Amino acid sequence: MGRLGSANSGCRVSCSGEVSVAPHLKCGAPPIQGPECDWNANALAKAKSYQETMAMSPESIREQLTSEHGEQFTAEEADFAIQHLNG
After folding, report:
1. Most Cβ neighbours (<10 Å): which of 19, 63, 72, 84?
2. Which residue range(s) make up the domain with 42?
């Protein structure tokens, strides 16, 4: 896919070299660019986090996922997350 993701989300390489969905890494590892990242799964993980910790509605979660000031997922990734939120 060749994109970076936002500062608050995205697949990242951990300090040990493992790929993980992590909002922040203490070692400052850069985001992965390319097919190694499952952006749909990442969007779903963020959506579940918003639902569980902030009791946000699906509409509010979708807005946060696609916001240029939020997570910056694509509309398709956000739609995937919302469709699979309670699955």
Report:
1. 72
2. 11-83
28: exposed, middle or buried (Cβ count in 10 Å: 0-12, 13-18, 19+): exposed
User: Is 2 within a domain?
Assistant: no
What is the CATH number for 16? 1.10.10.10
* 8-state DSSP, 3: -
Amino acid at 71: E
- pLDDT at 49 (0 to 100): 92
Q: What value, to the nearest 5°, has the Cα angle with vertex 40 and ends 42 and 56?
A: 65
pLDDT tens for the chain, 87 residues long, are 334 444 444 554 444 444 444 444 444 445 545 556 788 999 999 999 999 999 899 999 999 999 988 889 999 999 999 999 986
Residues in Cβ contact with 52 at an 8 Å cutoff, skipping those fewer than 6 apart: none
